[in-house]
Amino acid sequence: MKYFRKMIEHYIPVQDDEWADICKIFDIKHVKKGTTVHHAGEVFSEIWLIKSGLARSHFSDMNGKDHTWQLYFR
C-alpha cells in the first residue's frame, strides 16, 4: 500500500487519517501462480494492483495456440 499511496501523492497530498479510511475499502488478495482471475466476456468489477509478481492476459486461437496479449508487473 506504500507504493499505491506514493502514486496518489504524486498528484494530491493525503493525510494519515484519510489514508487510514481509504485502506479500509481495499482487500489484499494472494493469488497462486497459474490461477485464472478473469475470463473473457465476464464483467470485471474490481481494480487490481500488483504488489509483486507478474500477471498476463492471453488467449488461445482456433488451433489451440496460446498467445500472450499483455503483461502486468511491478
The Rg value, from CA coordinates, equals: 16 Å
Number of helices, counting only DSSP H or I runs of 4 residues or more: 2
Note the overall shape: elongated
Unreliable spans are none
> Structural class, please?
alpha+beta
Query: Strand share of the residues?
Result: 15-25%
Q: What's the N-to-C terminus distance?
A: 13 Å
DSSP helix fraction:
10-25%
| Number of DSSP E strands | 2
Largest sheet: 2 strands, antiparallel
| Spatial arrangement of strands, main beta sheet | 1-2
Let me know the average pLDDT: 90
> Strand-and-helix sequence, N→C?
HHEE
Structure in words:
The chain has 74 residues and is of the alpha+beta class. It has helices at residues 2-9, 16-23, and strands spanning 54-60, 66-73. The protein has a two-stranded antiparallel sheet with strand order 1-2. 0% of the residues are buried. The model has no long low-confidence stretch (mean pLDDT 90).
Name the features:
elongated, 2 strands, alpha+beta, two-stranded antiparallel sheet
Give the arrangement of secondary structure elements.
Blueprint: H1 2-9, H2 16-23, E1 54-60, E2 66-73
Antiparallel strand pairs: 1-2
Concise summary:
The protein is built from 2 helices and 2 strands. It is of the alpha+beta class and 74 residues long.
